[in-house]
Amino acid sequence: MTTPLIVDTDPGIDDAFALALAAHSPEVDLIGVTTVFGNVSLEHTTRNALGLLAALGRPDVPVAAGAARPLVHPQPHVSRAHGDDGLSGLAHTLPVGTADPRDAVTLLRDLLLAAERPVTIVPIGPLTNIALLLAAHPGLKEKIDRLVVMGGGLAGGNITAAAEFNLWSDPEAARRVLVDEDVPVTLVPMDLTQRCAVTAQWLDLLSASSPTGALLTSFTPAYLATYRRFLGWDGMVLHDAVAVAEAIRPGLLTTARHPVEVDCAHGPGRGALIADRRLEAQGGIDVAVDTDLDGLRAFLLERLGH
């Protein structure tokens, strides 16, 4: 029996890999995609999601545009790691799709109400849409099986010394979802996703494996250039695909349960994830801390190569 799945996303190059993984996995039924500002503007993320799904053979999946800005304070700037259009300047090569007339929160509500089984939602961008959904429709929480969230860093960040990009982009929304709500959450932080990084050789294998693999790797030049420039390393991190992999195969990632906080102050720690790791607690959320790295890479290559 397949698991109904919704991806909330800000494509983004690693988001493109994540969407392909969701679209090509028989264990899940991708019933909807919602878009949010983040790596690039909402206009770009929505266009990218529509084009990617059409190119992946899934134009049937409804795509609804969501929040164009954070809940409270403006996002200081967007990421440039993905190029100006989110896909290394190649978004214009994708088919043009038409967004669902509903906004993201309305589509999320409608899909949850119509679902016969609890739905897994995978937010892989800023958490604004999910915070708005939970605030506006608290009665729908029982329809959510769990949230598999890509975000945060236990040992520091990537956009600042303290904060990972998704949480930093809307700390107030992140705190609402990760701290204040009682929906089951599996948080996939960058500490683990960075360990799951793939090499240029892995990308070459993917490119040669199938048209989908060639399509995905065609979008990677800006991302690869960023990793070469800042880390001196020929490879990249597929942050968001790791979260989708866990949604497809629950338990693929090893988790520990910790209480967490999100720093919403306007200091150098804004957007930081603070996890109490002194002992595993009964409260809190499940935080992914480990996996079979080679096994995960092999799973991604097998699914994305078809």
TrEMBL record:
It comes from the Bacteria. Transmembrane segments: none annotated. GO terms for cellular component: cytosol. One of its GO terms (molecular function) is purine nucleosidase activity. The keyword Acetylation does not apply. The keyword Cytoplasm does not apply. Its EC number is 3.2.-.-. Residues 5-294 form the Inosine/uridine-preferring nucleoside hydrolase domain. Keywords: Glycosidase, Hydrolase. It holds the Pfam family IU_nuc_hydro. GO terms for biological process: purine nucleoside catabolic process. Coiled coil: none annotated. This is Pyrimidine-specific ribonucleoside hydrolase. It comes from Saccharothrix violaceirubra. The lineage of its organism: Bacteria, Bacillati, Actinomycetota, Actinomycetes, Pseudonocardiales.
